[in-house]
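Subject: Sanity check before I submit

Could someone independently write out the structure tokens for this chain? I want to compare against mine line by line before I put it in a report. The sequence has 167 residues.
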Amino acid sequence: MIVPPLLLVALVIVLYLLSSIHILREYERGVIFRLGKLLPSPKGPGVILVFRPIDAIMRISLRTVVHDVPAQDIITRDNVSVKVNAVVYFRVIDPRPAVVEVENYMYATSQISQTTLRSVLGGAELDDLLAERERLNQDLQKIIDHQTDPWGIKVSAVEVKHVDLPQ
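---
Independent answer below. Compare away.
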């Protein structure tokens, strides 16, 4: 049995259109590059069309990420060595700069969290570190949020979890 060429072309077109359909969940947005240029607004949620190879899509989750900052060795202002770990809560507010402005926004936010934790808590005395934890958490949150703002990232909270005191 020979398939007519017109039917074969129609079948290829239908398969191409079906493969172009993408479904984005409520908490996802699709950043689309058309011929390498960023489209003006992210797509989703719902059904979107991505025509490959002209379009490329990057899915970005808008949910809050809970990042555990590993224990950092910190020397306080009064020369006491402590280990401190923390938790950073952040989410993507604008997916476009999260894709375009930084290579990996998760890794970059993690690194900024670590370095800011060391610098802010290194400027505090041990008594302040233990007694004024709430104020230090707010300072950390403001500084990290200010640094990640150009990437479309909103840091909602930073909590110092544990302080290991020297023996």
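---
OP: Matches mine. For the report I'm noting this point. The CA atoms of residues 55 and 74 lie 47 Å apart.
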